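Review form for a predicted model. The reviewer records the input and the model, then writes brief findings.
Reviewer: anonymous (R2)
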Amino acid sequence: MATIATLVPINSGEPMVLPELRPVGRAALMLAKEGIQVIFGDTVADGRVTGMVAERGGWRRVEAVSVMGFHDRYPSQRRAEKYRTICREQAGRPMANPQSITLLCRDKLRCQEGLDTFGVRQPPVEADSAMFRKRLTDWGFAFLKPRFGALGTSVNRVAPTDDLPVFLPSVVPGQEDPAILQRAVSPPLGWAGRSVRVLCQRMPDHSWYQCPAVLRQSRTDPVVNAARGAAVMPAADGLSVDTMEQISHACAQVCSAITAADGGRWAVELGVDLVIDSDGVPWVIEVNSRPRGRLQVLAALDGERFADAHVQACARPIRTMAHLLRTEAVSDVRGGVKCR
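Model under review:
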């Protein structure tokens, strides 16, 4: 039995929903049948984890179980002190996505520079606040956003006459990040904005699988956020075949770039955000190392079509981790090098 820990906060004071009623729980039950035990928790000591294991009809608490590796889904910015403890106590076990990839994706400027070397089409950015006004004069419109991300809450479309703060609220309450400016992409006629999220996940053979893409669109709000009222639908139902092919190509480029980065061999899932321009051409605007929701929104829209895909998306990174860790263990026994 391969044992993988999925790092998530556990609130012992709240009852847990039955595994059968949640996609991640059903994924854990499915993986258990494949010989992969998943422990959900955030209490780690010397590579051993205390947390919860899914079983038919409920959850079972386990204590101080040695794990092969960690699937990192932890809110490391909001719970920084706890996360530092986890990192100290992981005892050299592989972690996916590794911290190096998380930090790269979090730094929107450094990530953009890395993607540029792989030819990924991206709107230009400006990090020097002294140049903001000039760039806006040249570009017309841009998006002002925190350099280290804030889950979309601090992103605003700005014009040359708007106020341009140098710092914006961070994802961490009470903190601020330096602002960066990203040129706005002209949307298709009749739309304020159309954006696409693609969940890319690693397969056991090291290739990348692209899950069904999600299209978010609004005729009035250029930020195009579902939480702000943007309509959501399967991208394949709303975009042309040519645009979808270009999206797939762009995501493949992103995955190649992340794979080549420090720690990239242990990157197992990425959320790639793109916007569609007036010619139907996609531009990559952001890469997330802890994509939220996975296919939850599509499963809610059409369960018959996407419910199983949602469960598989929850299971795929852990299944790939187990395969890679087993392979590493065999290689080590035969005289190979352990992955750390």
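Findings: Residues 330-340 have pLDDT under 50 and may be disordered.
Further findings: The CA atoms of residues 187 and 277 lie 5 Å apart.
Recommendation: see findings above.
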